[in-house]
Each structure stands twice: as structure tokens, then as C-alpha cells.
Amino acid sequence: MKFNTDRLIFVFLILLAGCGGGESESRVESGNREGVFHFGNHAEPQGLDPHIVTGIPEHHILTALFEGLVLKNPYTLDIEPGVAKAWDISDDGLTYTFQLRDNASWSNGDAITAEDFRWSWQRALSPILGSEYSYMYYPIENAEAYNTGRMADFSQVGVSVLDDHTLQVKLHSPTPYFLQLLDHYSMFPVHRATLESFGADSDRLTAWAQEGNTVTNGAFVLTEWQINSHVRVEKNRSYWDAEEVDLNAIVFYPTENLVTEERMFRDGQLHRTAEIPLDKIITYQQEQPEVTRIAPWIGSYFYMFNTNRAPMDDVRVREALAMAIDRALIAETVTQGLYTSSTALVPPGTLGYQPPQLFTFDREKAAELLTQAGYPNGEGFPAFDLLYNTNEDHRKIAVAIQQMWMKNLNITVNLVNQEWKVYLDAQNNMNYDMARRGWIGDYVDPYTFLGMYITDGGNNKTGFSNARYDEIILHEAPAELDKDKRFALYHEAETILLENMAILPIFTYQFKHLYQTSVKGMPDNIMDYYNYKYVSLDSEG
Amino acid sequence: MWRFIGFRFLQAIPVILAVITVTFFLVRAAPGGPFDQEKAVSDQVRAALEARYQLDLPMHEQYFSYMSDLFRGDMGPSFFYPGRSVNELIIQGLPITAELGFYALLTALVIGCLAGVLAALKPNTAQDYVPMSVAMIGICMPSFLLGPLLVLIFGIWLDLLPVSGWGNSQGDKILPSITLGAMTAAYIARLSRSGMLEVLNQDYMRTARAKGLPEYVVVIKHALRGGLLPVVSYLGPAFAALLSGSFVVETVFQIPGLGRFYIQAAFNRDYTMILGTTVFLSTLIVIFNLLSDIVAAWLNPRLRYQFRK
């Protein structure tokens, strides 16, 4: 008797069919029925301590677990009461008095008091903790001094407890967007007793924020956290507004690989994706527009110049490079409508602000400027390196721009892509000629962009320095209460920035997600912000 | 036999020490550090972070501190995940990667040996060409192509198997195991085919057949032991290939294993995690190579006498 291969293959196939069999109901369908939202969250959260982490995946989970003084309406981005049920702002815009609600509590039953906020903010500002978002607190009087170690006494910082449910905050200048800052996770409260039971509160290495240990105050509580697998949060029955919460649970998946994520969506495993792969966008827009959402996002895509290095030290060269790019063409053909052309730093419409329009695509003018700078028709212009972080989109855009410069200015540019940390390192040490940069606003106000370019600002890294710009950004604008006058000041500052062409604006961002049709209550807004109290799953959808 | 094993074991220790040392210094030499973020960090914050993770100490002090912790079995805190230790993360990721590797190896052995033995029994016929060509797919197609292809066919078009995950839905272990095992299956097929061919032509095979034994007894009892010897020697490097191949498969199928931690750690410059995983994986590879040598020596007694003069 010989080896009977046919029999073997037959047995193998039986085993295969027995193990598989497919799914009778997809995860999305069972989620719709049970109120469980399956959320593609791009990356594994670094941690769930709101004062330490810095990313967007963390933001999505932390806003489910914790609640700050205020919340935002996802349709209008207006401020809504959170733990604070009402507040008073003094006429000079410097003093905020918050009334906390009586029925807000931690997930272990403890009541939330004003002292919880005071203590949490002190912890977040502790110099030893090393919170990377501590600058969000800086509008508060003396917060920066305390955080940088120049002042040791926290009682001098503008946060005080008037009684158990009244918190008073003093700012050093009227900051119109201050309420928006309060909804950022870096300003969320944390539970003192829990932190202290795990060790020194300013030690970032304790395990207090993990599954089974953490105590939170939001609409959901943490029930499962399996690293690189999923994070599951379930509805907090004792949340003060639990009646308004439709969802029963949210499961966050670290879908790092965009292509795998899209397959998961197609297979009915996710309700929402973090991204859409670039080469699938057109197909989705044409065949399934009801699940595709692409909308403006408060972010700016630009190249930065190292103005300390030749030839970038000549403003005419920088202007020439900026004017020689046909942004509309790239937006249409290379990036398929994913980005919007921009010739300014601040995205237009940010709270109604319109940025200055100083130049357009003009190849004659660009060539003329280059000639004036000493490089007629590009002769003698040294080849320089354009740095960008390894990413297919950035590469395509850089290649298109490189070709435009070659064609319109007759100059050579080398494209250098670097891995993320190497690229950050080059920027931090100003070891580059020109580099790609992206900046997403932390809140809806032009200041989140303009604040970067003060002299020696940590996020500046271009060598740009202008006394009038500093004066406006550091002193005049924060003190101006009238919105129109403040915007006029911003306009002046941005004009200075663009006249000096310290950065080369290219696009403003759009976010792109896929949503199953059963998802309700996640409208598009410029912050790409979700308020889970508004979200529900339609079981017919 | 014991001298052989002892000698091999002694050889392994300096290898592992060298791996640790080289990795330690290499990782710190790479530009960009664990605390470089896109948003600028103030000097005080940076100083506080570096002090907490001992990065402000001179390099040799950091090294000795790390080595002394390592001898006590403590691989340190993860630089990227505050509050988690490297030991904890490895313990979480390891069982999954090990299971994936085991199933992949099983798949590779089954498919590979079957294809190779069948091919060797009737060389240069259809029974030879068909299995070997199918096996070639494993060598020609990289896992990041084969994986998504299998997902497309079985997961989306035929809707038979899940597209991602490990242990969450029924049958989600099949596609990743096949994807990972494919290349090893191909090599095993070739090795077993050539091994079997060599054995089947030996005189003692002719003797066995002449004795009147049925063919399957001849093959299984007499030929296999000698014919599969090259496969056994290959198992050590095969394991190493499977471990490193698992990184890609884990990314494609969203499997929370050690491979994904490893890639993330390199990307995030999580020094302790990179070191810990490297130490762990290189120790495993050394052990597996050792085991593979031992099994080969057991099967083939001639190899045991390498060290006698």
C-alpha cells in the first residue's frame, strides 16, 4: 500500500473547514445590538495616566475614562458643563470661579471635590514628574514658574479652593481660549488616594493607571487592558450623567497597520477607523461614500527653513521657493483632495480668523526673486537637502515639489527621508536645511499655531526671531479682551512671520475616517473631537 | 555525549554576553532618544525624565547597573510605557509569539515533510513536480504579500476565516500559521526531498525491499530516520527565522506578540525593552541551536565524536 495522498489532502481540508466556518454575526453587528463600539485607535496607548501621556490614541481612551471641569459639544465645539456645573468669569477676564456639581463622583464612590482638582494640577505641574503637556497650564498665574522649578511654593500658583465645591483659578492675562484648555486630558483630575497608595505621586513609573488599579471619574470605567490587543471600557453606572450615555462599552484596538485596519473595517470588525489608506480613498468615495468621512482638521502642513544656514538665510530665496510651488495642482493630483492648499500658517476659519494672503503661485516672480538673490536662472544655487519623516504621503508631496522647483527655478534639491526619531533629532539640533513639519492645534484659537514662533521657542527651530512678533504674542495679544482687536494683532504677527518666510506653508490637514452607517453622534468637527455621551449605535444601521 | 553538550553550552555564554553588550551601546548610539517628541520639551522636563531613567549617568555606569540588574533577572522599566516593566511586557507577549511559532513550525513540518517525502518517492514525475512547485511559493512570496493575499481570499472573498486577531475568533490561528510557516515549509520540503533521495538509493534499502517488506514499512521504518536528518539540523536556524518572521506576520494580522513589542520598542527608542527582548530572543535562538545540534548528534552518532582526538 502506498501513501495515499488523496486521503491525506481530504483529511486536511476537513480539518480546515472544521476549524473555520466563518462568522455568523460580525463584531459590528453584535456591537450594534449590544451597544459595544469597536474603535480603531491607531496605536497602543503609552499609558493611561492623563498627566504623562501625549498622543491622540491616548486622548480617545482618556476622554472616555476621565472628565475635566468642562466638555465640548461635538457639533459646535461650544463649551458644556463637565464636573463644573457653572462658572463665573470676572470682567477683566483674569479670574474664573467654578461651581462643581454635588453628584460627581469617582468610580470607587468617593465624591469629587475642588481639592481633587487643586491637588491634581499640583501633581501635573510637579517639575519632577516631567509632564510634556505642562505648558497647557501656563496661562495660570505662576504655573510656569512652579513647573520650571523657579518657585517652590504651590500656594502662590493661581489655583485655590474656596470650599468643597468651588474652585477659583487666576490667570496672569485674559486667555479667551482658557475654557478649551480645561477639556484637554492634561488638565483632568486624578484620584489622590490611589496614586499615593502606589508610591510617590510624582513618580511616573508607578502602576496606578493600570487595569484593576485605576480610579476614574468619567462616563466609562476601565475593565480590560491587554497590551497590543485591546482596551475595553464599560459604562460607569454611577457617572452623574449616566442616563445620557447610550453606549454600554467601547473597545479600542491598536490598529497600527492602516491596511490591516481597512480590512478589519470591511470584514465588519470595526465601527470606526483611525485612517484610510491613501490608495483606497477614491474607491471609497465613489463606491461607499456613506461610510467615508473626510473633513478639515485644525492642522498645518509646512516646510521649515533653517534660517541660519545658507542659502536659506536670504529671505528672497525663501520667498522664491514658496512662490514656485503650484499647491492646487499637488492637492488635486498627488494627494487626491486630501489636503487643502494654504499660503499661511493658521488654517482659515479657526474661530473665524482669516490669515493674511501674502503670495500666490507665481513662477515669474519667483524666478525674479532668485535672480535678485544672486542666482539667475538657478545658476550657482547650491543643492540642499529636504528632510521628511518616512511616510508615503510625505514622499509623494516632496517629489512633486522637487520637480516643481527644478522646472520653475532650475535648482536641485535632494530628498532625504529619515526615521521618526532621527528626523526629530535633526530638527531639535537644527541640523537640517529644510524640513517637513506638521502641527495639529491643541485648541481652537490661532494662538496654538502662532505661539510656536517666539524667539528661541521650543517649537521654533528655524532661527526666526522678531522683536515685534514676540511683543505681540507674548504680551499684547494675551492681554486683549476684544476678539476683533486680538485677531487684528494675530494678523499682524502672522504677516511678520510670512514676510520673513520662516516657514513655507503648503497645506492644511483633513482627517479621514471610515464609519459604519450604524454609528450616530460622531459629527465632523475641526478638532476631530468626540463626546461619547452623544454617540449611539443604530441596530438597524 | 555529555562532553559534547557541555562544550556547546560553554560556547553559548560568551555569545550571549557579546550580544547584550553590543546591543546596549549600539542602541544608545542611534540618533534620537526615547524622550524626543514632536512638541518641544522644556529643559527641566527633559532633565527630570533623564534622571528618572538613569540616562544622566556616564555610559559605563549605566552599563554596569543594567548588567547587575540583569543577573538578578530584572530587565528594568520600559522607557516608553510608564509603570510597566520589561519583564511584564515580555511575559505578556511571549506565550502568543511562542504559540504562533509552534503552529507555524508544525505547519511547516507537516507540509514540508509531506511534500518532500512524496516528491522523493517518485522523482521526476508529477508527484515530484507538483508538491515541490507549491512549496516554492513559500520561498518566492514574502510573508507580507502572502498574508494579505490569504486574507483576501479566505477572509474577505470566501468569508471562511477571520482577517485578524489571535484567539479572539474561531479559526483565526490558521492564516497566520500558514503565512509564517510557508517559507520554512519550502526549505523543509527541499531538504527532506534531497535527504530521502539520498537514502532511498542506499544498499540497505534494496536489502529491506528484497526481504519482502511492504513499501510503507521500508519508507517509514528505514528511510525516514536517515532521510530527515538534514531537516533536524535545519530546525535550529528555522526557529530563528520563524521568530524574526513573526514580526511581520504579527503586524499584518494584528497579533499582540513579542514581535510587535520589539518593533515598537526600536521605533520608540525604548532602550530597556529593545535590550530585554534582544537578550531574550538571542538566548532562545542559542538554546534552540544547541538543542538542534544535540538531537542531530543523537540521531547520527558519528557527530558525537568530534572532540575525540
Describe the structure.
The complex is a heterodimer of chains A (541) and B (309). By secondary structure, chain A is α+β, with helices and mostly antiparallel strands. Chain A contains 17 helices and 18 strands. Chain A has helices at 5-19, 27-34, 56-65, 114-124, 143-147, 178-181, 192-197, 258-266, 281-287, 315-323, 327-334, 363-372, 392-409, 420-428, 447-450, 467-479, 483-499, and strands at 36-40, 70-72, 79-81, 84-89, 95-100, 159-163, 166-170, 220-226, 230-235, 249-253, 292-305, 340-341, 384-389, 413-418, 434-440, 503-514, 519-520, 536-537. Chain A has a 6-stranded mixed beta sheet with strand order 12-16-11-15-13-14. The radius of gyration of chain A is 26 Å and the shape is globular. Chain B has 309 residues and is mostly helical. Chain B is built from 12 helices and no strands. The mean pLDDT of chain B is 85. Chains A and B meet through α1, α8 and α14 of A and α2, α4, α6, α9 and α11 of B.
Sum this structure up briefly.
The complex is a heterodimer of chains A (541) and B (309). In chain A, 30% of the residues lie in helices and 19% in strands. With 541 residues, chain A is an alpha+beta fold.
Q: How many beta-strand runs of chain B? A: 0
Roughly how many Å apart are the termini of chain A?
59 Å
Inertia-based shape of chain A = globular
Q: State the helix count of chain B.
A: 12
Helix content of chain B: over 70%
Rounded to the nearest angstrom, the radius of gyration of chain A is 26 Å
> Beta-strand level of the residues of chain B, as a percent range?
under 5%
Number of strands of chain A: 18
Order of helices and strands of chain B: HHHHHHHHHHHH
Helices and strands of chain B: which structural class?
mainly alpha
Largest interface: A-B, 68 and 63 residues
Task: Tell me which oligomeric state these chains represent.
Answer: heterodimer
Number of helices of chain A: 17
